[in-house]
Structure to design on (685 residues):
């Protein structure tokens, strides 16, 4: 069995490895050089994997642009200092560090380190000594921002006095590797160290540890921390970059305009489902941008964001779509505040029961940057089932009734919850925990108890119990906890519902308490919606039901919306679509006719649905009249001409039918059935 599993894994590895080789083989030389030489030490595994999957040179060029954009320390400037410095290092390595080696400088150990870390603060050269191989000691300091020690050395030595200088490893090589003659047992580090101490004291200490001030070397044994240092040095460039942008480039390269794909910006996001007092479930979402790019014009800073969202079911069918333009403008004082804080975009919409996936794409139309969020959603179908929503944890809350006839994202009952999507808190913060429990009977409210458990290192750190009947706004529950006694660490909060001492429901959320003294809290741009008695929500629910194929439910919801707002062409059109699907054609005329006879032409689809309804009812002259009006407003259209031809044909007016169909073929010759109709009519004539 073990052999079979191993063989299976080998086949899988060989398949993917073979795929990677095939991709590399197909790469044009200039892109192969970029991948395998120019950025080989600074590209991450996910970035490399994505690049190898690209099939077109235009995509590769945009990816390379995205690659450098995400390494640009000053995105707003015209020059990418990081890219410029990288190619300077690469050129230096090729010109100066490969002279003694039978390979280009970038492939040598010194070339690799120079490309990754840049110029050392100091170089000590050891040459012309018979007991010690030629060596170079590079000293670095001030690299703590890269996760490296305050001061450290890297040693390179020329084995046999020929060829390239190799990077020295205290643990792998040991002091004896630096000496031209072995002293004692090759495994006797102490003897080699003592000889090195005698002939080259400065090199001796570095032979055991590369880290300045390292006290972990004992009895002449090399320090393991030095080899860990070497590993961290060689992974430095990859550790500094968040590779998520590469996957987003791959996912969105066929969806967003190519000019955006190079400019993915990182963001945190949050998606929660909250049930309104009207029993509608609303999806609340937040996208927290890492940075906001703006333009300056006449002493005003401005930008335009465009948000597009889709909700699809398990089969990938789109159930709901939304679009939201966001125009932002700041004066000098405001931009100072905003530039030091993340921007959080909040929104919400109602959603029917089911399992869905939400995708939101947010584009900055000024800077051509984009970000996104994706989540799976479950909207419960059984309103009476006992259920607990997921937790929303925040750093503050504001109590007060919602704005009159307005819905605001992340409002639970009378509490507005303020949060940061990354769930990081200060010790001086309060932790606000909010959630809903639905399906509570009066008996359960009297008997139930809520347990709040705070968990650190998989152990309960703090537990607080409260009776359900202590809360005044069920099904909404909001509780606040001081974090004074929470030392900086990673925590979980678990909320459980107990009935008669037995746990019935529970949910948990993770959060971090930081050692920092302050955190820049997000600046919020929040969408406000009308109250749930507004026709907008019944219209959206009805449209979602229609898209899900639930026609009877869609009709009830859209009829309710239509009765509230009969002057809305969007509501009337969607209701007409439902009537058309249910073959209730007589109802279509009464709701669409007022729009067709109004002073302004309605949407094209209103003409099409009305004309098709008349066709299905046998009112062919009326149908032709409606299709003709559509053409007068929107111009010749293949579908309209085909419907007109069909109406004339059924009326026995074959000459008129022939004219309409021939005109349709001029627009699109690739219509086999229409061409057959034309040929049949011509044969009979």
């Amino acid at each position: 069995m073990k052999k079979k599993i191993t063989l299976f894994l080998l086949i899988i590895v060989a398949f993917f490895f073979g795929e990677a080789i095939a991709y590399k083989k197909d790469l044009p030389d200039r892109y192969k050089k970029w991948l395998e030489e120019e950025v080989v030490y600074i590209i991450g595994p996910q970035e490399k994997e994505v690049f190898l999957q690209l099939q077109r040179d235009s995509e590769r060029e945009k990816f390379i642009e995205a690659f450098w954009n995400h390494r640009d320390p000053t995105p707003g400037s015209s020059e990418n200092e990081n890219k410029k410095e990288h190619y300077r290092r690469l050129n230096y390595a090729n010109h100066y560090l490969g002279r003694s080696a039978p390979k280009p400088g970038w492939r040598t150990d010194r070339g690799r380190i120079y490309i990754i870390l840049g110029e050392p603060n100091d170089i000590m050269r050891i040459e012309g000594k018979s007991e010690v191989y030629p060596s170079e000691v590079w000293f670095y300091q001030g690299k703590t921002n890269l996760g490296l020690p305050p001061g450290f050395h890297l040693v390179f030595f020329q084995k046999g006095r020929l060829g390239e200088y190799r990077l020295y490893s205290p643990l792998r090589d040991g002091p004896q590797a630096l000496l031209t003659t072995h002293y004692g047992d090759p495994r006797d580090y102490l003897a080699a160290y003592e000889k090195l101490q005698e002939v080259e004291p400065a090199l001796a200490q570095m032979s055991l540890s590369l880290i300045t001030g390292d006290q972990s070397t004992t009895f002449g044994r090399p320090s393991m921390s030095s080899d860990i240092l070497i590993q961290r040095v060689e992974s430095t460039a990859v550790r500094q970059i968040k590779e998520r942008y590469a996957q987003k480039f791959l996912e969105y390269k066929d969806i967003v305009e190519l000019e955006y794909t190079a400019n993915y910006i990182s963001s945190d996001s949050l998606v929660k489902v909250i049930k309104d007092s009207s029993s509608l479930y609303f999806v609340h979402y937040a996208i927290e941008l890492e940075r906001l790019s703006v333009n300056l014009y006449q002493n005003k800073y401005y930008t335009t964001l465009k948000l597009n969202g889709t909700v699809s079911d398990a089969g990938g069918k789109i159930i709901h779509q939304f679009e939201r333009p966001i125009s932002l403008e700041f004066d000098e004082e405001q931009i100072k505040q905003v530039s030091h804080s993340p921007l959080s975009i909040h929104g919400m919409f109602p959603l029917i029961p089911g399992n869905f996936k939400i995708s939101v794409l947010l584009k900055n139309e000024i800077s051509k940057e984009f970000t996104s969020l994706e989540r799976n959603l479950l909207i419960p179908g059984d309103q009476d089932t006992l259920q607990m929503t997921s937790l929303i944890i925040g750093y503050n809350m504001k109590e007060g009734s919602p704005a009159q006839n307005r819905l605001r994202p992340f409002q639970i009952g009378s509490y507005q919850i303020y949060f940061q999507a990354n769930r990081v808190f200060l010790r001086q913060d309060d932790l606000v925990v909010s959630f809903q429990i639905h399906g509570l009977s009066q008996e359960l409210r009297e008997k139930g108890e809520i347990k709040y458990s705070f968990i650190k290192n998989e152990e309960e750190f703090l537990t607080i119990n409260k009776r359900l009947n202590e809360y005044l706004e069920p099904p909404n529950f909001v509780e606040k906890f001081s974090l004074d006694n929470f030392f900086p660490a990673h925590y979980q909060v678990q909320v459980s519902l107990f009935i008669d001492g037995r746990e019935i429901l529970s949910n948990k959320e993770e959060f971090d308490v930081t050692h920092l003294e302050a955190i820049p809290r997000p600046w919020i741009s929040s969408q406000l919606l009308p109250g749930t008695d507004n026709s907008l929500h019944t219209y959206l629910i009805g449209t979602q039901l229609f898209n899900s194929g639930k026609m009877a439910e869609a009709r009830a919801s859209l009829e309710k919306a239509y009765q509230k707002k009969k002057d809305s062409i969007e509501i009337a059109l969607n209701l007409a679509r439902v009537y058309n699907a249910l073959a209730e054609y007589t109802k279509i005329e009464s709701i669409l006719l007022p729009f067709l006879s109004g002073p302004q032409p309605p949407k094209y689809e209103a003409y099409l649905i009305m004309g098709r309804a008349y066709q299905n009812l046998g009112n062919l002259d009326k149908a032709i009249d409606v299709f003709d009006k559509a053409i007068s407003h929107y111009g010749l259209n293949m579908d309209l001409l085909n419907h007109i031809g069909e109406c004339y044909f059924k009326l026995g007016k074959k000459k008129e039918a022939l004219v309409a169909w021939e005109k349709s073929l001029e627009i699109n010759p690739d219509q086999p059935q229409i061409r057959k109709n034309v040929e049949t009519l011509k044969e009979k004539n």
In short: Confidence is low (pLDDT under 50) at residues 1-22. The radius of gyration is 35 Å.
